[in-house]
Amino acid sequence: MIRILIADDHPIVRQGFKQVLSDTADLLVADEAGSGQEVLALVAKKEYDAILLDISMPGKSGLEVLKELKAVNPKIPVLILSIYPEEQYAIRALKAGAAGYLTKASAPEELISAIRKVSRGGKYISLSLAEKLAYEIDGDAEKAPHETLSDREYQILLMIASGKTVSDIAEEVCLSVKTVSTYRARILDKMKLKNNAELTTYAIRNRLVE
User: Fold this and answer.
1) What CATH class is the domain 145-205?
2) Could you read off the pLDDT of 8-63 as tens digits, one per residue?
3) Contacts of residue 37, Cβ cutoff 8 Å, sequence gap at least 6
4) Distances from the Cα of 159 to the Cαs of 30, 47, 75, 109, 177, in angstroms?
5) Residue limits of CATH 3.40.50.2300 in the chain
6) CA distances from 199 to 61, 84, 102, 143, 174 (A)
7) Distance between CA atoms of 167 and 67, rounded to whole angstroms?
8) DSSP assignment of the chain, as one string?
9) Domain 2-136 class, CATH top level
10) CB of 45 within 8 A of CB of 66?
11) Range list for CATH 1.10.10.10 in the chain
12) Which of 144, 170, 147, 148 is closest to 159 using CA atoms?
C-alpha cells in the first residue's frame, strides 16, 4: 500500500484527488494538509511513501516547502502539482528535489502512474520536459533573464505578468506590500526592464503566461 499525503490549500481540490485515488487498490490517502506548515508538521510525525504538493501554497510557496522537506527527509518522494504549464516551474521544482512535476490538467491515469513511479524511487517527467532538462544542463546554454531570478522573485514575476496588483500579490503570498514592491524592483533591475508593461510583454513572449 502506497501511503500518500495530499497538500493543497483548496479543500475541493484535495477532495478531487482523494476521489481519483480512492478507486485504486494500492493507493491510500493517509493525510491532507492545507498549508506548508501543516505538511512539515505531519512529516515530522509520520511516514509517507509519496507527497502530492501544490506549488501555489499560501505563505511558504510549494518550492520553499519542497526544499525544507528535502532538508528534513531527502529520500521522501515529492510530486509537484501545478496549474502552471511545465515551462513555468518544472525545472525549478526538479532542481529543488522534486521527484516529478504534473499539471492539474493531467489525466487521472497519469497521476496514478506518476505516484507509483516516484514511490518506487523513480522520477516522473514528460518527454518535452526531459528535452528541456537536457538543454538546461548544457554548460554552453545561455540563461534567459527570468532564469536568474530566485524562486520567490520568479513567483512574483508570474503574478505581475498575470495582471495582479502589488496588493493582490501581498495578500496571496502573505507578505507586506512593501516587501512585494522590493521584490518587484529587484526583478525589474535583474531583467533590465522598466515597468510592469515591459515585464508582461517579456513573460508573454517567453510563454511564461498564457
Assistant:
1) mainly alpha
2) 999 999 999 999 998 899 999 999 999 999 999 999 999 999 999 998 887 788 88
3) 59, 60
4) 33, 34, 32, 30, 14
5) 2-136
6) 22, 18, 26, 17, 22
7) 27
8) -EEEEEE-S-HHHHHHHHHHHHT-TTEEEEEEESSHHHHHHHHHH---SEEEEES--SSS-HHHHHHHHHHH-TTS-EEEEESS-HHHHHHHHHHTT-SEEEETTS-HHHHHHHHHHHHTT--B--HHHHHHHHHHT-TTPPPPGGGGS-HHHHHHHHHHHTT--HHHHHHHHT--HHHHHHHHHHHHHHHT--SHHHHHHHHHHTTS--
9) alpha beta
10) no
11) 145-205
12) 170
**CA angle, residues 34, 29, 71, in degrees to nearest 5:** 60
Render pLDDT for 59-100 as a digit per residue (tens, 0 to 9): 788 888 999 999 988 899 999 988 877 667 888 888 889 999
Classify residue 188 by burial, with Cβ atoms within 10 Å: 0-12, 13-18, 19+: middle
Q: What pLDDT does 34 receive?
A: 93
Q: Which three cell numbers stand for residue 19?
A: 476521489
Cell of 170: 501581498
